[in-house]
User: Fold this.
Amino acid sequence: MRDYKVLGGLGAVFICLSVVPYIGPLLTLTGVILLGLALKSLGEPQLFRDFLLWVAVGIVGGAAAALLVFTGTLPAIKGTGAPSYVITGAGLLLGYVTGVVQALFLKRVFDNLQRLTGQELFGWAGKLFLAGAVLLVLGIGVVVAWAGWVVAAVAFFTAPERLRPSP
Assistant:
């Protein structure tokens, strides 16, 4: 049972290190995989499903948003005309909505971790993820979400070894 603490804590730390130049994306991917392994090891199907939904929404929504933004700016990139602000704006809006939906799934994961472990910091991490996604439009959301990963790392490393019994 101790594995979830180490895997989850390291996963959160690696995600925090996503800001490291050049290797940040690799560290993020490693962190997400470690976090997934930690959650899978807990044997709670809903917890792992919410995690997978968080990942899937990010991949599908992020790719669709990136495609719209690229399509909208392609004429300007090619030098054949002005960018389509409607398409680009739709892509940015889709990216924002995707981030909020992802944060809702991640908050559910961390709320369930709090319920299973009794560690209140998991609940705080979930709140920071959601607040970060909503505040992204103000420019401070990235910092708030990053703080959520710091809190999540501390929560994993300080969580109890044994889970609470299910009611």
In short: Residues 2-158 form one domain. The chain has a mean pLDDT of 92.
